[in-house]
Amino acid sequence: MSKKKFNIAIIGLGFGAEFIPIYQKHQLANMYAICQRNKEKAEEIGKAFGIEKVYTDYDELLKDPEIDAVHINTPIQNHAEQSLKALRAGKHVACTVPMATTVEECKAIVEEVQRTGLTYMMMETVIYSREFLFVKEMYEKGELGKIQFLRASHQQEMAGWPGYWEGLPPMHYATHCVGPVLALPKAQAEYVSCLGSGRIDENLIPKYGSPFAIETCHIKFKDSDLAAEVTRSLFNTARQYRESFDVYGSKKSFEWTLIEHEDSVIHTGETPERVKIPDYAHLLPEEIASFTTAGVYDGDDNQHLSFIQGSGHGGSHPHLVNEFLNALAEERAPYPDAKQSANITCVGILAHESAMAGGKIIHLPEFTLS
Asked: Using alpha carbons only, how large is the chain's radius of gyration in Å?
C-alpha cells in the first residue's frame, strides 16, 4: 500500500466545497487545488480553506503536473468531457453522478480507463449512506437470507434548480435509485424495460423532448435470478423528497420509511418492527469520522439545494473520499469503478429510451475492463 499523499484538485465549488475539509483531514490526501469559473468565488473559497492553487480554467489546471487526481462536481452535461480530459492528462478521476449523459460517453470513459490504467470512481452517495451500510451489514451477516427482490425510488421536485434541469427525463438522473439495487448484491444490469406515466408542464417538454412526470423501470440482473424496480420523478408530482430502497429477503426484509426522518421497518417473517439506523463513522479513519454528521453545508444559514432536499446524503461523503483514496493507495479498483459506473448510469439512459418506445426491452452494452 502506498503511503504517499495524493494531490487532489476539486472542480466545481458549489456542492464540491463540501469535500474540501474531508480531503484536508484525510491522511492520504493533500487538498492541492480548486477550480471554478467565477474567479471571485474561487478565490473566496481558496482563502477560506487556505488553498493556494486556485484555477478558473479547467484546461490550465490539467496541465499542472503536481495534480494526481481530480474530483469533478460540475453540472451533469460536463461530466463526461471533463472526465475524459482528466484521464487523457494522466489524472485519476472521482466524479459526481451521473457518469455521463449518453451510452457512447460511458463507453469512451471505460475505454480510456482501460488504455491509461488510471482509476475512475463515480461518487454515488446512496451506496455509502448509513442506510445502505446498515442493510449491507445485515446482508453480509446472513440476516436477510437470500435476496428475492429490490426496489428503489428517487422522487423530488426540481423547480428552482438551475435551468439545465428543466424537463430532464427522470431516468437520466437515476443513479441514486439504480445504484443501491445493483450495489447490494454486487450485480450488473442485463436489460431494462421502462414505462413513462403522466405529463409535465408543456413548457418543460421541448428542451429534452420528454413528456413524462414519472418513469418506472424493471431491471433484469445479469447471471442472476434477481430483478429490481426503480421509480423516478422530477416535476409535477406531489411527494416529499425521497431517496429510498427496499430489500426483500427470505429471512428478513428492509423497507425505507415513507416519511423523511421517521424510522424504517424491518420485517422478520410477517412481523414488522421499527429500526433506528445507526451511523457508520466507525468504519472511517478517526480524522474524518465527524464528517458523517457535519460539514460545510450543515448550518441553517448555509445550505446547498442537494442538502436541503437530500438530507445530507446519509453521511456518505467521507466514506466516498475514503474509498477513492484507499483505492489509489492500494492500487485496486474502487466501488463503483468505471465498468460498474457505466452499467449503473446506462440503466437510466436506456430506461428512458425504453419509456419513449412504450416499454421496449433494451439490453445494456457490455463494459469490459481487463
From this structure: 20
